[in-house]
Amino acid sequence: MRYDVVTIFPEYLEPLRLSLLGKAQESGLVQLNLHNLRDFAFDRHKTVDDTPYGGGAGMVMKAEPWGLALDSILNSALSNQPAVTADAEPHDARPLLIVPSPAGKVFNQAKAYELAEQEHHIVFAPARYEGIDERVLNWAEDHFRVMPVSLGDYVLYGGEVAVMAMIEAVTRLIPGAMGNPESLDEESHTGGLLEYPVYTKPSVWREREVPAVLLSGNHAAIARWRRDQQIERTFARRFDMIETYPEDGWDKKDRKL
Ligand code: 6GU
User: Which parts of the sequence belong to the tRNA methyltransferase TRMD/TRM10-type domain (predicted)?
Assistant: First the structure.
């Protein structure tokens, strides 16, 4: 997977070089290119923003630097295109351009799986201020598949943190990028219920004991207890997930709450 991010704060995304994401880059599974938008601003002050036409609060990101930054990514992507073979299915070769915005469609685990499975080049355009001149997004439609994406119903200063969240969520689903791939099977938002609580040594800590069933060695009882905990938690914290849980997903031994 190749990621390109254009931002006025490339340092903001440097933590993506750490830990398992760093390993995925070292192994060549993932390539992360960070681009400074200011490198594409050619006036003396490297201006990337200006006042909005029509008036109003805040500043708008100028079209010219974004246009040049995206041109440069398109040019470098062209030389990386796989050779076209005669029997290949016709497909949309435009890279995906994700534009983080609280006005986008909400990102979720299903979308993360979709991107991990179907994409090999994702470009991110995180904005600051009040956003990017709309003509950039309009022009970009001709060269990218443009997708405005939100993390949820709250507002951040800018899109950088959203990009970090999406890159983490997608990369860990790429085969080979997960320390322990089995942990993908049991986690929240894959099976339709939230994860069960976990414990490790010592068995007593500040007078609190680990639930006895987990020390019993009875694997069937442990599985039952964990399933009960998942249902209880999901019921208490995310009733919306209970309501959309598939009818045939319930086991006849599942406890009625
Ligand atoms: Cl993607 N961007 C910004 N600026 N705020 C957000 C967001 C994105 N998602 C939720 N809030």
Answer: 1-243
**Contact, 47 vs 62, CB < 8 A?**
yes
**Segment 178-185 long-range contacts (CB within 8 Å, at least 24 positions apart):** 178/20, 179/20
Domain ranges of the chain: 2-171, 187-249
Whether 161 lines ligand 1, by a CB cut-off of 6 Å, is no
Taking the C-alpha atoms of residue 123 and residue 64, their distance in angstroms, rounded to an integer, is 18
Ligand 1 mutation target, pool 149, 156, 160, 164, most atoms within 8 A of CB: 156
Q: Which two tokens stand for residue 36?
A: 């400074």
Instruction: Assess: ipTM above 0.90.
Output: yes
153 close to ligand 1 (CB < 6 Angstrom): no
> Around 29, how many Cα atoms within 13 Å sit in the side-chain half-sphere?
16
For domain 2-171, is the CATH number 3.40.190.10? no
What local confidence, expressed as pLDDT, does residue 250 receive? Answer: 95
- The whole model's pTM is what? 0.93
Which residue do the tokens 């960070």 mark? 34
Return the percentage of the chain with pLDDT > 70, whole number: 96
